Amino acid sequence: TLSFVNLATGDTKNIDTGLHPTSIIVNGDKAYVANTASDSVSEISIVDKKVNRTFPIKWGKMNLFGAMPNSLSLRGDTLYCCNGGDNSLCEIDIPSGTTRGFRPAGYYPIQAQISSNGDVAYVVNSKGNGSTRRKTVHNAHDFEGTVSFVPLTTPIAETSKLVAENNGWNR
Predict the structure, then answer these.
(1) What percent of the chain has pLDDT over 70?
(2) pTM to 2 decimals?
């Protein structure tokens, strides 16, 4: 859920979004919430305190179970989602609410910042290029993260094909 809390009175209004909301970004009177376990993004009206629309993460007509959108960035009418489950940066066209396509990132991307000119996304990947596993203890902190420089000027159809191949969506 997403909660609106009046700090002066303590009054709270909860809104059901998707499962496991992990990121929020605000643009004017709208907020966008990444729903990691629902493989979707919710568009919230801040004024009306309700979900306006839900954008499923799709490749063509295929719903992508396990895409795991976990972080959001915004530039113009484009919403960028770090999809940890398919190791990509997903682009969503906000006016239509549809997925434009995907760009390859590193292993489990968790945050992206878009360059000021919009040509590059700087993507932090939590699991990096493998691990620095110790010989005796294995835990989540053994991974060494990386940063990917993702060009946003390459046609999205080309990069989407590569992400589809990497994830076996063409089977």
Answers:
(1) 91
(2) 0.90
CA 82/CA 103 separation, integer angstroms: 10
- Residue carrying the six token digits 């009306």: 48
- Identify each DSSP E strand in the chain by its residue range: 2-5, 12-15, 21-27, 30-35, 40-45, 50-56, 58-59, 62-63, 69-75, 78-83, 88-93, 98-104, 107-114, 120-128, 146-151
Please state, in angstroms and rounded to a whole number, the distance separating the CA atoms of residues 156 and 122: 17
Structure confidence by residue, pLDDT tens digits, 53-100: 999 999 988 888 999 999 999 999 999 999 999 999 999 999 999 999
State the CB neighbour count (10 A cutoff) for residue 40: 23
